[in-house]
Amino acid sequence: MSAGKESHAWFERALKVLPGGVDSPVRAFGSVGGTPLVVAAAEGATITDVDGRAYLDFVGSWGPLILGHAHPEIMAAVATACRHGTSYGAPCRPEIELAEQVVADYPGVEQVRFVSSGTEAVMSALRLARGATGRDLVVKFSGCYHGHVDHMLVAAGSGLVTLGQPSSAGVPEQFTALTRVLPLDDSAALEALFKAEGSQIAAVIIEPVPANNGLLLQRPEFLRQLRTLCDAHGALLIFDEVISGFRLGPGGAAERFGLTPDIATFGKVIGGGMPVGAFAARRELMRELAPQGRVYQAGTLSGNPVAMTAGLATLRKLHADDGWQQLDELGTYLQATVSSVLAEAAIDASLARCGSMFWLALHAAEPPRTAEAIDARAASSYAAVFASLLEHGIALAPSAYEVGFLSLAHTRADIDRLAAQLGQAFTALPT
Ligand code: PMP
Prior knowledge:
It is a single chain. The chain has helices spanning about 5-15, 70-85, 95-105, 120-135, 160, 175, 185-195, 220-235, 250-255, 285, 305-320, 325-345, 380-390, 410-430, and strands spanning about 40-45, 45-50, 55, 110-115, 135-140, 180-185, 200-205, 235-240, 265, 275-280, 350-355, 355-360, 395, 405. A hairpin with a 2-residue loop joins strand 11 and strand 12 (about 355-360). The chain has 14 helices and 14 strands. The strands form three sheets. It has a seven-stranded mixed β-sheet with strand order 4-10-9-8-7-5-6, sandwiched between helices. Strands 1-2-3-13 form a four-stranded mixed β-sheet. Strands 11-12-14 form a three-stranded antiparallel β-sheet. Helix 3 (about 95-105) runs parallel beside helix 11 and helix 12 (about 325-345) packs parallel to helix 14 (about 410-430). It is of the alpha/beta class and about 425 residues long. The longest helix has 21 residues, at about 325-345. Bound molecules: 4'-deoxy-4'-aminopyridoxal-5'-phosphate (PMP). The site of 4'-deoxy-4'-aminopyridoxal-5'-phosphate has 15 residues, from helix 4.
């Protein structure tokens, strides 16, 4: 599939003034080839490019748009908020109301601090954990992505895996010297690390539903073991729920697994499509933050009234319409339709799914649980599937390692269309 004339022309201009033509690497289509669509508008489950071509969208801006694009109620709430000014740099009602909603919804949290991105949420949560425990080490898992925080860019997922780099240039070794990286799903490695260094570990951070290197669904026992070890050694457990928070349900993955982290980080859905991140914990921990405590954290646009309004309207709508229940039903339908198509495919292929998040695991009869278990052929096979779908007006994420998202704007007919087109794409795939 080649992008249309207008997309080409705009992207040529972009390449001159934006590095790689983009503001976030995976948008550049680097791993699937071709020219990115330059988007002109989006509504419901459809995005339209500058050539006027419409695509059924399963990217959803990488997760935030759980109600679909340009939902009329969210747009109206944002328009009203804008009329009252776009930023105050002072406390405002919607930030207090959104914090109240988070505290009511998410297990074990009593206070929230809002920031402007998931990266910032993680960076601040880790600082809080180190400040509160007086310890320096942090532990992450290979295959989990926690934003582009310097000391988290170690064997990270997301765009970096696609680029084939274990970490980023520009991050001094000393910055990552206090980060330990473990494989997912490896109880023995976890046990051994705690045995060796448990008393120095400030925090363990994990995506409880790892969704940045494929969808690497974890055994609940592994997550329970993590909780137990953190408790036994006085380390804090951070659930990075930037993707899963308010997508899997009001209590995110924590509620699904019946586990309460010490700190949770949020982004995406909580901002209703506006730039928002947040981290939350019990009061005793949050009290360590400035202005009350000694852990410094601040932001000019944090708690922005327009962004808070969009997030609040989104969460209220999900509650009012039983949105999460509907999304689970759509997800179940997708699993049934897509799985039966994959069963007929010429290559081994399976579907990993959790609620409204899904991933095509290629060259895998069962979805893998670790980044290391992903078949090396997956990327090139995915590129062919991606191109075939785009040709037929369906937009999946432009990377084999990124998950797809359902929104409340998707219908069963949309899912049928996806399944049928996947069937065609798999028929054409070289084995
Ligand atoms: N944590 C997770 C789990 C994420 O998926 C992401 C982004 N995809 C981030 C953190 C970083 O969020 P942002 O891109 O908003 O900085």
